[in-house]
Amino acid sequence: MDRTRSLPTSDTPQIVQRIRVREVWRQVYEQLPDLPLENEYVDLETGEVDPEDTLISRFIRYHVYVKGRPPQYRLDWKLTLADYLGANDLMFEGVYPGGDELDRNPMYGDRETIASLSRTERNALVHTLTGLFNPQYLSLLEAAAQRNAPSSTPDDRPRRDARTPPRQPQPGDAELLLP
What we know:
Blueprint: E1 4-8, E2 16-20, H1 24-31, H2 55-66, H3 74-84, H4 107-116, H5 119-133, H6 136-148
Antiparallel strand pairs: 1-2
């Protein structure tokens, strides 16, 4: 079965890129090659190890198909991470991706593996997934960084010495608040 998710890639709704949810895991491993594959489970149908049933492919399928979360938002990926870490929603074996297709349910092993990742590795995973499913994410980050960067022009407001107290109210100051 070919499961795809259509996501807009520009401001014009006519242009749509089709992202294959079942194939994004490859790009994640290309960008983060140190992530564990966890693909040693035997497929019940073929009797062989399925090299494409990886930790990240199951993570993505859990996020999109089991939880129904949108894949283009960073917060939603953080919620999925929290599920795996036992800090958000409960996870159930019966609906976990690969649970009924593999020789043993990979849920507990996947949760242990995600928990063994450092915070930096988990943040890199969220950043990578968000960037792959939302190509505008990186440009939005850059724009926000530029907005928050200190400007090189001096501030026009007069600076008050931190050691001097603010001016005390004077008679008639309240009238300045009238329309």
